[in-house]
Every structure is written in structure tokens, then in C-alpha cells.
Amino acid sequence: MRTYRQLFRTPEFTPFFLTSALQVGAQTMSGLALGHRVYAATGSPLLSALAMFGPALAQVIGAATLLSAADRIPPRTALTGLALLLGLGTAVQALPGLPVWAAFAVLLALGPVSSLGGGVRYGLLHEILAREGYLLGRSVLNMSAGLLQICGFAAGGVLVTVLSARGTLLAGAGLYAAAAAVARCGLGRRPPRAAGRPSVADTWRNNARLWSAGPRRTVYLALWVPNGLIVGCESLYVPYAPRHAGLLFACGALGMLTGDILIGRYVPRRWRPRLCVPLCLLLAVPYLLFALRPALPLALAAVLLATVGYAANLPLQERLMSLTPDELSGHALGLHSSGMLTLQGVGAALAGAVAERTSPTTAMAAMAAASVVVTVALAPGLRPGGPDRRPTQDGDSDRDDGDGDGDGDGDGTSDSEGDGDGDGDRDRDRDRDRDGTKPCRKMPGNLAPAQRELPPSRPSAGA
User: Fold this and answer.
1) DSSP class per residue in 237-287
2) Is the pTM of this model over 0.85?
3) pLDDT exceeds cutoff 80 at 175
């Protein structure tokens, strides 16, 4: 699957795409509106940043307690219920005279539940698309997020001015309701991906299993930390330029869109593993310019260039899934999504705290410098063609051949595709012996997640 036409002809992809798009639009508009409302009421850059990105911080609770449900709830039911719940919470935040503490209480309640969204959504994408289509499908979702954030921040800025922040929140609640309707009517009924009842103990056990392998830890940290620190920069757009915050967010979304198009559609697969570190550095370096308090046109150019670096998420996710057992694919993607959003919330809180004591521009430059330091520290573990690594506890081979597929052959393809040479069967038998579990059964016509070509949320980060 190499063209967008083929992608949208795939059954169920169009309603899946529309559901995700409506939720991105709702989150973008309502996040901007709530940030304006809290800043107008308190004048605090910290509280404004937490209002926009605080729900991401609360996702750590869900990642620690609820993620095992990502593979154990029917996907259509989960996506419909989550959209309805988010719409209800957004409508509550629009109530007249709602105290600031009550708005934050709603955010705290919605954050843990939202942690399921990433695992359910991207696990379902694995089921809908074949091996060749996942990376293209994921890049299309990211590109649509970029376009919708451009439109959403622009429309949100206009609606905040014309209707007020409260009216914009109500519009966001309406978009969430529309997303729930599309998910319910457009998606097919599918059974859960895993049997059994979700539990906190199972969530902890699988989190520990995923975290136990050194290469996976490095990839998770690269997905979470540099990204989260730069979101801290973005969380200060409102106090930095209250009248032009929507324009800054729109430029960031345009840069993210550009990066996703280039990496997802045009960059050859053999090059993608080599771009992880350069893209992470690109994400941070332009924000160092804010230490000089640039004029608005230069600030817009810096934001546009930097956010191209969010495309690092695509090759990093591709590497993550090549190192992940089939039966943990939904949980692994949910942990990635929740961890990324949590670190984005931490970045927003940290940036807001620094801005309270210094200034928004100083805080933005400091967060960018920290992101550069973290990326440089993680770079050796992300280098293509690294040495062989010892097997992990869960039976995954940590051998990294540099092509991102985890098969150790350097050709960019997985040996577990059932190509008739017997390598895939031996790999699965070896995994079963080390792990003590049998590999998951695979439905005909749908390859397991770890066998696919694999490659984002807060209002503005590349998910």
C-alpha cells in the first residue's frame, strides 16, 4: 500500500480517520479556549499552561492503572465512550461562573481515562491496515492532525474573540459528540484483542515487561522526553504573545504537517532509522533563538522550522514496535501515548514554573537547551548499526541491525513474515521458550503488529 487512494479505500479506515480528526479538532479548540479563560481569570502563565496541557500530565495515573484495558475492551465501544466522556467534560468546563479549581478538577478526572485512547486507537489501526499500510496510515493521521490544528487554532482564536472562550468550549464539546457518532455508526464490531479482565496488577506487570528491555527503554525515552520539553515551550505561547498565540500554534502545526509528509511519504525506509536523532535536535535547536527575544516574524519562522522535528515520532515508533511482542502491541502503544502526554504535561508545568520566576522567552530557551542535552545523551542508543544486544526477559531479541525492523539482517524487513524460509517460525519458537508463553494466534489476512512496517496528544505535539 503506497498511495493515499489505496489507503482510503481500505474498509473502515475512513470512519476511523474521521473519528480521530474530529477529536483532534475538538481538543485543539477547547484547549486554546480553556487556556485563554484561565489566563484571563488568573493572569498566571503557569496555570494557563496547565489548563492547556495539564490533562496530559494526569495520564500517568491511567498509564499506571488502566492500560491493560486497551486490549481488553471492544475498540468501537471504547472509542465511542471516550469521545462522549470528553465531550461531557468539555461542556462542564463551559458552565458560567465555573471556578478555576473546578475546571482543573474536571481535567484531572478526564486525564486518566484518556490514557486508554492511544492504545485503543492505534491498536485498532493495526487491525484495519495491512503490513505495508500502517506507516502510511499513521503519517496520514499525523498530517491530518497538523492540518486540523492549523484550522482549529485559527478557528479557536476567532471564536474566542467572537463568541468568547465559553462559546468555543461548547463548540469543542459538539465536535466530541460528532466523533462519538461517527465511531459508533462507521466502525465495525470487533472483539477485544486480548482475553481476560483488565486489572491494575496486569497493567503493572505489562508495563514492567515492556520497560525491562534496554533498547525499548531508550526508544521510549526518546519518544517522551525531548518531545515533552518542547511542548513546554509551546505551552508559553499565550503569555509570550497573547494576541498572536493562535498564529504561533498554527505555524507549529504547519511545520509538523510538513515533517510528517516528508518522512511518512517520501523518505525511503532504509534512511528513517538514521533520522531519529537529527529530527529530535531539529525539534529543539530553533527554540534557542527565543533567548534573544525575537520579533514575531522571526519567532514564527523558528516555530515552523522546529516543529518539522516532530516527525521523529514515526521512525521511533517503527523501532518500538519492531522490539515489542505481538500480544503487547496495544499496551505498548498506549504506554507510548500516555508517557508522551504525561511528559508533555510535565514539560508544560516546568516551563510555566520557570516563566513565573524569569520570563516566557527565557523559559522557552531553557526548555529547548534541556531537550538538546537529553537527545545527545540518548543518541548512542539510537544509532543505526549498533552492536548485538542480549535477549530480554520477555523473549524479544534486542539485536539492532540499524534498519529499525529488529530482525538483525539489515535489510529493513522482518524475518517473521512467514516467507517460507523457516526463520519466522524459529523466531517465534525461541520467543515462546524464553517468555514461557505461546505466541498470539493471528487472524488470516492481518499480520501481527510486530510484523508490520510501523512508524501522536495534546493539542500541538506530533502524536
Assistant:
1) HHHH-TTTHHHHHHHHHHHHHHHHHIIIIIS-GGGGGGGHHHHHHHHHGGG
2) no
3) yes
